[in-house]
Amino acid sequence: MDIEVTPDVFRLAEVFTISRGSRTEARVLTVRLSDAGVTGWGECVPYARYDETLESVTEEILGLPSALSRAALYDLLPAGAARNAVDCALWDLEAKRAGRRVWELAGLARPGPEITAYTLSLDTPDKMRAQAAKHAHRPLLKIKLGTPDDMARLEAVRAGAPEARIIIDANEGWSAEVYADLAPHLVRLGVALVEQPLPAGEDEALIGIDRPVPVCADESCHDRDSLKHLRGKYDVVNVKLDKTGGLTEALALRDAARAEGYDVMVGCMVGSSLAMAPATLVAQGALVTDLDGPLLLAEDRPEPLLFDDKGVHPPQAALWG
Fold first, then answer.
1. Rg, Å, the chain Cα set
2. Which DSSP category does 19 fall into?
3. What CA–CA distances, in Å, run from 186 to 95, 180, 192, 260, 285?
4. Contacts of 59 (CB under 8 A, 6+ apart)
5. Rounded to an integer, what is the distance from CA 112 to the centroid of its chain?
6. Where on the phi/psi map is residue 301: left (φ > 0), alpha (ψ -120 to 50), or beta?
7. Torsion over CA: 55, 57, 60, 66 (sign)
8. Element (DSSP H or E) covering residue 81
9. Cα(180)–Cα(185) distance, rounded to whole angstroms?
10. Is the Cα torsion angle 229, 283, 162, 133 positive or negative in sign?
11. 16 contacts 49 by C-beta, under 8 angstroms
12. If I label 156, which of 90, 102, 142, 269 is the partner at 20 to 30 A Cα–Cα?
């Protein structure tokens, strides 16, 4: 099997800002696995928060043996971006060899569209109100917070989009006290979910506190092994393929989380339709789907995912799977 890794850059439609910084483009890695004239592909987004770079992830992938399988991959690479791209490429390769869709190979029901969140970039309250008004037709908006001016921004977004469902990503920027202080206002403003309010590793303070707005583990949850550390702290887990290390573990984490009583959110990094395609299978029936990466881009892959008023649709075979 031949392994090819290429860096790709996708321009964003607008500058995208969160509490950790701003960006004007999405930098991803594309992995192609070729065997006997058939090529499967996948995409990952290395994330500095987890000490990943384009270079380090490329090195991990190119260090793999030429004889690969999804089962063997889990002994060769840890959960993370490198394993994600390779795992998804292996699924795509297997589907093309078999002439079947990935969901058939995985024993899943035929997937349908899922309503996805649309993320508003962090900005001044006035500009965020304008953003919210522009996207008020969308049923679910996501706000990146984690700053001292969070309430002003949240009030502005609610004023701009009075009917939309709202979820918040605090990006590890709050404390338990801040969450407790803000919770009544979050309820008043109709916030449906708060992602990762406390830093991962410092979230013991969530145990035992009243959570009138459900709290979702993002940075605190990577794969099934993470679940034992979440009990009593979280109500929802955010499944991202770049954290789980691929579709295989993402499906397993989703099912294990539900079995332990958690609701499930399916999220993404900012990437192309190729990165979102496998995640649409995981998102079936999720409490929250957040696969808006392609909506933030000025350019995308050929045969991109379809987004319409029904949500994000599963990929066509020409894209992936």
1. 19
2. T
3. 44, 10, 8, 26, 25
4. none
5. 18
6. beta
7. negative
8. helix 81-98
9. 10
10. positive
11. no
12. 269
Tens of pLDDT, residue by residue over 74-85, are 999 999 999 999
| DSSP helix/strand/coil, 31 | strand
Q: Are strands 21-35 and 38-44 parallel, antiparallel or unpaired?
A: antiparallel
The residue behind tokens 């990094």 is 269
Structure tokens at 242: 């770049």
CB 143, CB 168: distance < 8 Å: yes
The residues facing 31 across adjacent strands are: 5, 42
In the numeric block, the tokens 């990952």 are attached to: 44
Express each pLDDT in 192-247 by its tens digit. Answer: 999 999 999 899 999 989 999 999 999 999 999 999 999 999 999 999 999 999 99
pTM here is 0.94
Residue written as tokens 């770079």?
Answer: 53
| Residue 264 structure tokens | 């499930």
CB neighbour class for 185 (10 Å; exposed up to 12, middle 13-18, buried from 19) = middle
Strand partners, 215: 194
CA distances from 223 to 149, 212, 314 (A): 33, 26, 23
CA distances from 105 to 97, 99, 109, 110, 248 (A): 11, 10, 10, 11, 12
Instruction: Determine the length of the chain.
Output: 321
Q: How many CA atoms lie within 13 A of 225 on its CB side?
A: 6
> If you search the block for the tokens 């995409």, which residue do you land on?
43
